[in-house]
Design a protein that fits this description.
Distance between the termini: 68 Å
Structural class: alpha+beta
CATH superfamily of the domain at 397-658 and 669-707: YVTN repeat-like/Quinoprotein amine dehydrogenase
Number of helices: 21
CATH topology of the domain at 397-658 and 669-707: Methylamine Dehydrogenase, Chain H
Helix content: 25-40%
Radius of gyration: 30 Å
Strand content: 15-25%
Length: 711
C-alpha cells in the first residue's frame, strides 16, 4: 500500500538510513519526486507529526498504527519499538491486537523494519555464501586471513535470516553445509544456533538477541576492505552486502593487513573484537599515595602472635611508615577522585604490622621460587564452590553448594564471638586490653558455620580489616557477615539471578558483584541499593576484581571478553578480547599496570592497561583456570587450574621490552612472543585436587586451596 511505503521511506530518511531507503525504493519502484510530493501533502504532514501540517493527525496516527500492525505481523507478532532520535518522528510501537504496548528487548531498527526488506531468494543463500567463500579463499594470502573473519558472522546472520523468514529446509541445509568451516572456538555458539530451527525459537533466546542487537566487530585493513567491497558490488551480491552494512561493524585501519596469528590472538568473543575506540580513554592505572603516619618505635612486643618468641631482629629506623612511596605516581588518579574511607587506628596498626612483615619478605625470582602450602578440603561432599583467605593469612573461608559459608582459623588463635550485651556492660571500658575482654572465650572454635543463603555460595571475600565477610549466592543475594559476632548483618538484593562473584575494594567499604543478569554492580556496605550498575557484557559476568587503586573494576564474562569500568562514572574504559571461552579468573599486578586473565580455554592472557593491548599469552594449562595471583612484589604470577596443577610464571620477564608504540596501539598488530616455555618456572601437581584459590602471604609464601575430588 502506497501510503505505508511512503511513511516507511520517510522514517528511513529521517533516521539517515539512506542505503535501506534506496533499496526499498528500488524494489517498490518509487521515485524521489513521488516521495517529495507525499511529504508535502497534508496527510503526509499529519502522519509524521510535522508541526503546522493541517492534515488531521488522528488520520496520521491511524496510518502509523497500520504501518506498525504490518510490522508486528512481520516480526511474528512480537511487539517492537522504534525509538527515533529525530524529534519530528513519533516513536512507533507495534501493538498486537488485544494487548497493551509491550516493549521487547529488541532495540534494533532493522529487526523491526525487516518486514519491508524483501529477503533474497532463499535458494540462492548457499550460492551467495559459497561464492564469497571461493573469492576469499582465492584472494592473496595477505588479505585472506583478514577477510576470513567474515565467515562466521555472515554464516550466523544468513542462517538466522532464513529461519526468520520460515525457510526451514533451506536453513537446515545451509547450516549443515557450512557449519564445519567455522573456527573451532565458535563451537559452543554454533551448538546453540543449531537448536534454533523455527521462527518461534528465536523469541527470547539470549544468543539470538545479542546477535540481532549488537554489531559484530571486525578489524580489517583498508586494502582488504576495498577488495571485498569491489567484489560484492561487481557480483551485485546485495544479500551479503546488506548484512555487512546492517549487522557488522567494520573497524578499518590504514596499514599492513594483519597475519593469521595476529587475528587469532584477538578474536573469539561473542561480538568479535573490540572497536579500537573502546580502548582509547585515559586510565589512571597508578597507585594512590600511602598515607604517612608515625610509628612508635617501641611496639615490638604488641600484636606479637605471629612472631611466636623468635629473636627480635634489629630493624631500620622507621619514623613514618609509607614513606616508600614519597612522590605521587604520575599515572595515579587524584587522591580524592573517589571518596575512600578514613583510616582507623586499627588499620594503621595493621599497616605497621604489614610493613614489618614486608621487611622480612622473600624476594622471589627464577632462582628463588616460593614454597607452596596447599589447603585441601577433604570430604567436602557439600561441594566447595568458593574460597578466600584474609590478607594477613589468618583465616580461610569456604563457600559451599549446600548454601553454607564456613570460616576457619589457620593460626593457633581460635575464632571467638563478642560477648552478649549483658556481659559487655560489666566490662571496664578504660582498661588497656578492652578488645580482648569483649571476646567470649566460651565461643572459641576453629570453625564457624554461617547459615543464611538458600542456594550454592559462588563467591566469598574478606574485608581488608578482617571485620566483615561477603558471600554471594545462586539465590540472587550478596550477604555481609560480621566476623565479630558471626551473624549476617545485611542481605543486598539487586540481582534477580545467581550472583557468580563478589569482592571487597582494597580499601574496604565498597564492594562489587557480578551475575547471570549480565551486569556488575558496585555497592557500599551502608547502602541498600547499588551505587553503580556496569552494563555492557553480552553474557553472564563470571568474575570481578578491583584495581589496586580502587578507581576501576575489571569484570570477566561468559561472552569471552574482559571489561574495565571506571568507578567514578560507570563508563567502560577497556574491552579486551582474545579468550576463546568464558573468563573465570582475573588478577591485577601489584603496580596496577597489568592485568592477567584466565579462562576455560586454559590460556592466561596478559594485558597492558594503559595502552589497552594484549602483551602476552601463557600456554600450559589443559583445563579451566580458576585462580590467578601475583606475588607481593609482582615478580611471579601463579595460576591454578582444574587440571590439578599450580604453575608459576616469570612475570618480570613477561612484561619487559614490551612493544607498545603508537602503531601497535592504533592497529592491533600485536606480535606475541612464543615464549610460554621460557616463562614457565615450575609446575606443581596435586594428587587429585582442582585448584580453586591462590594467595601470597605478606612474606611471599604461596597458599593454594581446593577440594579433593575422588574421581
Amino acid at each position: 500500500d502506497r501510503q505505508t511505503l511512503v511513511a516507511v521511506l520517510q522514517f528511513l530518511r529521517r533516521s539517515n538510513l539512506r542505503e535501506s531507503e534506496e533499496i526499498l525504493r528500488r524494489e517498490a519502484r518509487l521515485l524521489g519526486d513521488d516521495l517529495g510530493a507525499a511529504a508535502l501533502s497534508p496527510a503526509g504532514a499529519g502522519l509524521l507529526g510535522v508541526p503546522g501540517g493541517d492534515g488531521d493527525s488522528a488520520g496520521g496516527e491511524a496510518l502509523l498504527s497500520r504501518v506498525t500492525a504490518a510490522t508486528a505481523i512481520a516480526i511474528g507478532g512480537s511487539a517492537a519499538t522504534v525509538a527515533s532520535s529525530s524529534p519530528g518522528v513519533a516513536a512507533v510501537a507495534a501493538v498486537p491486537p488485544g494487548k497493551g504496548i509491550v516493549v521487547e528487548d529488541q532495540p534494533d531498527v532493522s529487526a523491526v523494519l525487516s518486514a519491508y526488506n524483501q529477503q533474497g531468494d532463499p535458494t540462492l543463500y548457499e550460492e551467495y555464501y559459497s561464492g564469497l567463500k571461493h573469492f576469499i579463499e582465492c584472494s592473496l594470502d595477505c588479505h585472506r586471513a583478514e577477510l576470513s573473519q567474515l565467515f562466521y558472522p555472515l554464516f550466523v546472520h544468513m542462517y538466522l535470516e532464513l529461519v526468520y523468514n520460515q525457510h526451514e529446509s533451506e536453513a537446515k541445509s545451509f547450516f549443515e553445509r557450512f557449519h564445519g568451516d567455522q573456527e573451532c572456538y565458535y563451537q559452543d555458539d554454533l551448538r546453540v544456533l543449531s537448536s534454533l530451527t523455527k521462527k518461534e525459537h528465536m523469541k527470547g533466546n539470549e544468543t539470538m538477541l545479542d546477535f540481532r542487537t549488537s554489531k559484530f566487530v571486525l578489524r580489517i585493513s583498508r586494502d582488504s576492505y576495498q577488495l571485498l567491497k569491489r567484489h560484492l558490488q561487481e557480483k551485485q551480491n546485495n544479500q551479503i552486502w546488506n548484512i555487512v552494512q546492517e549487522h557488522l561493524y567494520i573497524d578499518i585501519f590504514d596499514g599492513m593487513p594483519r597475519s593469521k596469528q595476529q587475528i587469532d590472538a584477538m578474536v573469539g568473543s561473542l561480538a568479535g573484537e573490540a572497536k579500537r575506540e573502546a580502548n582509547k580513554a585515559k586510565v589512571f592505572f597508578g597507585l594512590l599515595k600511602e598515607p604517612e603516619f608515625d610509628v612508635p618505635l617501641d611496639d615490638e612486643d604488641e600484636e606479637g602472635e605471629n612472631e611466636e618468641g623468635k629473636p627480635k631482629k634489629k630493624k631500620p629506623k622507621k619514623d613514618s611508615v609509607g614513606s616508600k612511596s614519597k612522590k605521587q605516581d604520575p599515572n595515579a588518579p587524584p587522591q580524592n577522585r573517589i571518596p575512600l574511607p578514613e583510616l582507623k587506628d586499627s588499620d594503621k596498626l595493621d599497616k605497621v604490622m604489614n610493613m614489618k612483615e614486608a621487611a622480612r619478605r622473600v624476594r622471589l625470582g627464577p632462582e628463588c621460587l616460593p614454597s607452596i602450602c596447599f589447603y585441601t578440603f577433604l570430604n567436602a561432599y557439600q561441594g566447595l564452590t568458593a574460597v578466600d583467605i584474609t590478607d594477613d593469612s589468618s583465616m580461610i573461608v569456604g563457600g559451599f553448594a549446600d548454601s553454607t559459608v564456613r570460616v576457619w582459623s589457620v593460626t593457633p588463635k581460635k575464632l571467638r564471638s563478642v560477648k552478649t550485651a549483658a556481659d559487655l556492660s560489666l566490662i571496664d571500658k578504660e582498661s588497656d586490653d578492652v578488645l580482648e575482654r569483649i571476646m567470649d572465650e566460651k565461643t572459641a572454635s576453629e570453625l564457624k558455620i554461617l547459615y543464611g543463603h538458600s542456594g550454592p555460595v559462588y563467591g566469598t571475600s574478606f574485608s581488608p580489616d578482617r571485620n566483615y565477610l561477603l558471600s554471594c549466592s545462586e539465590d540472587g543475594t550478596v550477604r555481609l557477615w560480621s566476623l565479630q559476632t558471626f551473624t549476617c548483618l545485611v542481605g543486598y538484593k539487586g540481582h534477580n539471578y545467581p550472583v557468580w562473584d563478589t569482592q571487597f575494594s582494597p580499601y574496604g567499604y565498597y564492594f562489587v558483584s557480578g551475575g547471570h543478569d549480565r551486569v556488575a554492580r558496585l555497592w557500599a556496605t551502608d547502602h541498600y541499593q547499588p551505587l553503580r550498575i556496569f552494563a555492557g557484557h553480552l553474557a553472564d559476568v563470571t568474575c570481578t576484581r578491583f584495581h589496586p587503586n580502587s578507581n576501576y573494576i575489571a569484570t570477566g564474562s561468559a561472552d569471552r571478553t574482559i571489561r574495565l569500568w571506571d568507578v567514578l562514572n560507570g563508563n567502560c574504559v577497556r574491552i579486551f578480547t582474545g579468550h576463546k571461552g568464558p573468563i573465570h579468573s582475573l588478577a591485577f599486578s601489584p603496580n596496577g599496570r597489568f592485568l592477567a586473565t584466565g579462562a576455560t580455554d586454559g590460556r592466561v592472557l596478559l594485558w597492558d592497561i594503559g595502552h589497552g593491548l594484549m602483551v602476552g599469552e601463557l600456554k600450559g594449562h589443559t583445563d579451566t583456570i580458576y585462580a590467578l595471583r601475583f606475588s607481593r612484589d609482582g615478580e611471579i604470577l601463579a595460576s591454578g587450574s582444574m587440571d590439578n596443577t599450580v604453575r608459576l610464571w616469570d612475570a618480570v620477564k613477561a612484561f619487559e621490552d614490551l612493544e607498545t608504540d603508537d602503531f601497535t596501539t592504533a592497529t592491533g598488530h600485536i606480535n606475541l612472543p612464543e615464549n610460554s616455555q621460557d616463562l614457565l618456572l615450575g609446575t606443581y601437581m596435586t594428587k587429585s585436587t582442582p585448584v580453586v584459590h591462590l594467595h601470597f602471604t605478606r612474606r611471599n609464601l604461596l597458599l593454594a586451596a581446593g577440594a579433593y575430588s575422588s574421581q
